[in-house]
Amino acid sequence: MSKGTVVLAYSGGLDTSCILVWLKEQGYDVIAYLANIGQDEDFDAARKKAERLGAKKVFIEDLRAEFVEEFIWPSVQASAIYEDRYLLGTSIARPCIARRQVQIAQKECAQFVSHGATGKVSVCAQCTCSLPESTVHVQVSRPVHLELAILGSEMGMAKHGIPVPVTPKAPWSMDANLMHISHAPSDLYLMTKNPEQSPNTPDMLEMEFKSGKPIKVSHVTDGTTKDTPLEIFLYLNEVGGKHGVGRIDIVENRFIGMKSRGIYETPGGTILHHAHLDIEAFTMDREVRRIKQGLGIKFSELLYNGFWYSPECEYVRHCIAKSQENVEGKVQLSVFKGNVNILGRESPKSLYNEELVSMDVQGEYNPCDASGFIRINAVRLREHHRLQGLNQ
Amino acid sequence: MSKGTVVLAYSGGLDTSCILVWLKEQGYDVIAYLANIGQDEDFDAARKKAERLGAKKVFIEDLRAEFVEEFIWPSVQASAIYEDRYLLGTSIARPCIARRQVQIAQKECAQFVSHGATGKVSVCAQCTCSLPESTVHVQVSRPVHLELAILGSEMGMAKHGIPVPVTPKAPWSMDANLMHISHAPSDLYLMTKNPEQSPNTPDMLEMEFKSGKPIKVSHVTDGTTKDTPLEIFLYLNEVGGKHGVGRIDIVENRFIGMKSRGIYETPGGTILHHAHLDIEAFTMDREVRRIKQGLGIKFSELLYNGFWYSPECEYVRHCIAKSQENVEGKVQLSVFKGNVNILGRESPKSLYNEELVSMDVQGEYNPCDASGFIRINAVRLREHHRLQGLNQ
Amino acid sequence: MSKGTVVLAYSGGLDTSCILVWLKEQGYDVIAYLANIGQDEDFDAARKKAERLGAKKVFIEDLRAEFVEEFIWPSVQASAIYEDRYLLGTSIARPCIARRQVQIAQKECAQFVSHGATGKVSVCAQCTCSLPESTVHVQVSRPVHLELAILGSEMGMAKHGIPVPVTPKAPWSMDANLMHISHAPSDLYLMTKNPEQSPNTPDMLEMEFKSGKPIKVSHVTDGTTKDTPLEIFLYLNEVGGKHGVGRIDIVENRFIGMKSRGIYETPGGTILHHAHLDIEAFTMDREVRRIKQGLGIKFSELLYNGFWYSPECEYVRHCIAKSQENVEGKVQLSVFKGNVNILGRESPKSLYNEELVSMDVQGEYNPCDASGFIRINAVRLREHHRLQGLNQ
Amino acid sequence: MSKGTVVLAYSGGLDTSCILVWLKEQGYDVIAYLANIGQDEDFDAARKKAERLGAKKVFIEDLRAEFVEEFIWPSVQASAIYEDRYLLGTSIARPCIARRQVQIAQKECAQFVSHGATGKVSVCAQCTCSLPESTVHVQVSRPVHLELAILGSEMGMAKHGIPVPVTPKAPWSMDANLMHISHAPSDLYLMTKNPEQSPNTPDMLEMEFKSGKPIKVSHVTDGTTKDTPLEIFLYLNEVGGKHGVGRIDIVENRFIGMKSRGIYETPGGTILHHAHLDIEAFTMDREVRRIKQGLGIKFSELLYNGFWYSPECEYVRHCIAKSQENVEGKVQLSVFKGNVNILGRESPKSLYNEELVSMDVQGEYNPCDASGFIRINAVRLREHHRLQGLNQ
């Protein structure tokens, strides 16, 4: 008799193949679920492999459009960046993948969800934590799967004639999606050209934003235009990749408390990060921006740590979205040899007032204003220095 | 009879020449003070001009070494950056210049200090606010100078036969120092090559840090080595400039509340910013880093707004310096076509533990740990979702 | 010929009477505006006085209900408190008063608004800064009024036979409204009994909240019930006042940079502050609360500094209101001898789960979870200590 | 053969007695360790009981003075308060207890430490996380103890004839120390009188601080004076307790993510909290205070969550201590019927300048300053409103 049905996040690779077999052997019915989030994968081959290994059903789901609109766009609005450098390409994909997995579990009346993350805690934390509200009622998410998965990956291979790789497993694993590829140090870059070999002439783009989200990208000289989220993002990946944009090699702090080296390619995400920063600075009040900056840092930590579906992350996303209402306009930029150079910007909502900038010549405030402003500001400082003098 | 002595921050240019003349005409004795903070200037010619215009004394002070050690280094430690993009090259110079001006005023028993900032409030705020403690006792800093200066710059020119420029004054002014050059949109770049014309092969450098401060830079292939603050910084400017590093075109929020376009070149500062970020992430505890990140944002705002000598900025600098005690080690990087690419890092104080990273294979914590960790974390989230369910 | 019409915020007292006369003398038509925000005032007498002094029109506006609903309630939601102690009773009233003043100016086609704050910068900043968006178009708000007002208050008295007080003006002035009274040290308390003379038996109240706002208060024993904002607040003032609740004597930091002593009575506001803190802690997720706490501190600073109508304050109010959606339920409390004691709370939205609290006995997570949780948390700490050991 | 030596944090109560017996039965040598942190306990009886149950050695350590100086004082400096209400009396004691436990383990060459916290994760996290640096080298702290302890508490009682309580265990446990007592709802209060029965006349105290730490307390009328940390704190407990100060009934958010009711008595700590807030506001620069306030909130979270010995908590304590250098002076206060009323304060380091407060009459800054200050501040707001108008 079946112990129940498991929806397994299946990659087509060795680990999750082992888990699939092992879960079956333990008496579970297994539904294989493979999310297409833009990785380079032979989905048909993966489907056949899963069926051959005994999956009762196989779901291959194209999540690319919702990945861009519902997960990448909010991260762009937030200027999400972890520890000042990492654009969170792996982290952004997880809640997108997990959400569909749970939806399938509900539809198929599965009691369990499972995935192949071998002890990679942050992955798991994500998975457990990120179940959307709706699913909790049907009790799908018993984390029982975790031990199964872990045992599976280590024991299953030999038992089932799945060839065990000769070299010990590296601490890195490649993780690829529409947003980025994460690498081992010795890997070949896949999304981006080496800037040393990239073209010697820049491409000029114009990015258009509304409510802090990209709504159009145009190539200034060849006239190419994209205006759906997925197309915009694919095109930015193409242009950024061609010019070697978005490679980084960093050491980052993982959730569970250790430092970890990460090598990432994020071409389109890098262009968007810079363009959005620019249009935001152009259209957002200075003090609102400061508050939003703090919320963006918080959002980035939550995203990195796997808390997308937490109440605090929902709250922060709401507040960030609110801040973006006037973030609207066009940014001109060039992409060249790994660089994204902002060339200009325009906006109907701009707070930039050229007349105001030059008002020191004959302006709306006069020298006496400036003097008073300074004098009042100085009251506190003078008191401080007076006291320091008295006490020396 | 003299109304007293004014120490005038003199640039050699039109504005401050007018102020000099005007101050004399108003009955003040004028001491001209010209700080060498690395700008491209004919200091001898400036001295002669000041003397010719009637300055009682002229002080030309080489502040470059203290500018690097006492002002740029703390900003590097802080990862000081304004609104995520501007490395604060103008702001960092001001407290350095103002400090010496006040010291001269004290030594020369001057009653006033003055400068040529025509209504540029932030400059003035800096000047008034940034007087070091010691000087307040002798009451040097009456902001009376401000009105004088402002009136001077607008009225003085015609009266004294100093030729008035035909075109109305641009809202931009070029500001140059060791750290950066700030530009008008139509200016020629001076410190950096255009990446399109820069060399086709990268230069590889190794930066060495101790307590978060650069202590050595070496060129990996040609063996050049620099190990004093000023030499290090000049060399980084040279290499960065050669490869077109550190150009930005931004809109920033000024202290007085308007948006302003800024075009900056900061070659050496940009290299240092990236190298320091890397060695800091490699050696600093994650949670200390988060706290320090917040303090660095605060420091950047204070610096931008002219509050270097405020009690809060002194406090923040102390706390940031404390955080840097273990920020020590070497960073390898390449500089190429506007990019600073981190290649690797090493440190005796590293918290990076390669064994730990791979511990999911056979590690110090076991799958059960991970599972427990996740389950405990999930308690709060499950409660939240339970409640959401109840209330739907 | 008239220089235009000024809407003068008129208190009926000496200062604003002088300003009224002086403004007329300068050639302005004056509309006197007196806001009823709950202060103890003979409004009829004030009207007559203003008319006698030459006001073209007199507006006496009862703003009490909107003061409670639109200004006090958001402050309660924010747990607004300045420097950990001051409940901001003066600050909350200003944007309420200023808004109506500007509305009257628009309706009456006045070109100016004026008020009697003699150099009290924070008051003025409030007034100038707090003009709602709509009014800027008709250019009502030239701060010209400020100098008028200031000159008026100092010069006007003698000229017009208004008796000048013999004693020099105290640095304190009493400021009273529905929310609080601010005092000079030697004043008699007006809203609250001395706890030493207050009743020897407590009153028990039950406060009901929805979306973080009070919607009902009931006296547990005598059955009194109030359920409109103004009535609720008046009743809490009555009960709090009877028991000596809400007296403080503090030194606070003023916006312009000096320290200032403040003595305040805020009976109803103090009860609400405690009751709201309690229901909020009971119903809000821990991590959302942390974020909201930071926003509340920001809100308090903005409010204190007169920036209610700034973009950042609008933004923060929106975010805080969002956080309050589930802050709903009843709090039981006793009021006695200056104390507000929380006795209990209940809520349909509570995240408090008594079973969960005792789950260590036979709970949803088991000892192994706890152990794993601790072990994972300890990874970072052990690495830190390992390094410290290596470097000693 | 012994499995090794365990240093058991022994309370003399049922739980830890069971653990002691169970550990022995499992083959461990047990050293019982009982910290005197001010709880009401018969230490001699506890020693005898531990010996009778088979402890190899018994350490009873009077930690009261170091508890006050090294743990309570830094918390007072930090204005440590959790979720705006709880003074952290339980949390502050743990790192003090754990430190000595580890020191004993090292001195006695014990391999393990253990305690009786039955699944109360936060307790355990504290214990594991809070081991000072020095001890990690000798590998004392394997959290193996945890399972032992937990199993012990549930299974040991029956086996060893220790009477099992008839009623199921309450989710609350009383926790008492010098700083506070934590209660179950039905408990009798032990440290504080009911304000309804407390004296009808207040006691007046004068607290003296240096570097933010209490250095003396005097009774204004009866002349009692205390000037060592332990005596000061005991005396404040006595006076506060006599007047019913420091009782709270709250719901708080626990580290592991659930809400928990807490009822606390903290008489002396409450007096100190208010007195320190007052002298700090009186002597600290406004902007330094804001930064320190944020650090204090962080410190409170770390303390609550058991991270006293973490790098971030060490860092935050350092920064907070730095902020306290000028927090010096005397605070007069009355204690009465549950209230702590600040009556006045004085300080050689005060930034309070009575002349400055009244400077609007004839002051150091003039009306024009104020006007300029306001006008400059308004630049940003006017731009914002202009834009809002354009876009409506």
Automatic annotation (TrEMBL), chains A, B, C, D:
<dbReference type="GO" id="GO:0006526">
    <property type="term" value="P:L-arginine biosynthetic process"/>
</dbReference>
<dbReference type="GO" id="GO:0005829">
    <property type="term" value="C:cytosol"/>
</dbReference>
<dbReference type="InterPro" id="IPR048267">
    <property type="entry name" value="Arginosuc_syn_N"/>
</dbReference>
<dbReference type="InterPro" id="IPR024074">
    <property type="entry name" value="AS_cat/multimer_dom_body"/>
</dbReference>
<keyword id="KW-0963">Cytoplasm</keyword>
<feature type="domain" description="Arginosuccinate synthase-like N-terminal">
    <location>
        <begin position="6"/>
        <end position="124"/>
    </location>
</feature>
<dbReference type="InterPro" id="IPR018223">
    <property type="entry name" value="Arginosuc_synth_CS"/>
</dbReference>
<dbReference type="Pfam" id="PF20979">
    <property type="entry name" value="Arginosuc_syn_C"/>
</dbReference>
<keyword id="KW-0067">ATP-binding</keyword>
<dbReference type="InterPro" id="IPR014729">
    <property type="entry name" value="Rossmann-like_a/b/a_fold"/>
</dbReference>
<keyword id="KW-0436">Ligase</keyword>
<keyword id="KW-0835">Urea cycle</keyword>
<keyword id="KW-0028">Amino-acid biosynthesis</keyword>
<dbReference type="InterPro" id="IPR048268">
    <property type="entry name" value="Arginosuc_syn_C"/>
</dbReference>
<dbReference type="GO" id="GO:0004055">
    <property type="term" value="F:argininosuccinate synthase activity"/>
</dbReference>
<dbReference type="InterPro" id="IPR023434">
    <property type="entry name" value="Arginosuc_synth_type_1_subfam"/>
</dbReference>
<keyword id="KW-0055">Arginine biosynthesis</keyword>
<comment type="pathway">
    <text>Amino-acid biosynthesis; L-arginine biosynthesis; L-arginine from L-ornithine and carbamoyl phosphate: step 2/3.</text>
</comment>
<feature type="domain" description="Arginosuccinate synthase C-terminal">
    <location>
        <begin position="182"/>
        <end position="382"/>
    </location>
</feature>
<comment type="pathway">
    <text>Nitrogen metabolism; urea cycle; (N(omega)-L-arginino)succinate from L-aspartate and L-citrulline: step 1/1.</text>
</comment>
<dbReference type="InterPro" id="IPR001518">
    <property type="entry name" value="Arginosuc_synth"/>
</dbReference>
<dbReference type="GO" id="GO:0005524">
    <property type="term" value="F:ATP binding"/>
</dbReference>
<dbReference type="Pfam" id="PF00764">
    <property type="entry name" value="Arginosuc_synth"/>
</dbReference>
<protein>
    <recommendedName>
        <fullName>Argininosuccinate synthase</fullName>
        <ecNumber>6.3.4.5</ecNumber>
    </recommendedName>
</protein>
<dbReference type="GO" id="GO:0000053">
    <property type="term" value="P:argininosuccinate metabolic process"/>
</dbReference>
<keyword id="KW-0597">Phosphoprotein</keyword>
<keyword id="KW-0547">Nucleotide-binding</keyword>
<dbReference type="GO" id="GO:0000050">
    <property type="term" value="P:urea cycle"/>
</dbReference>
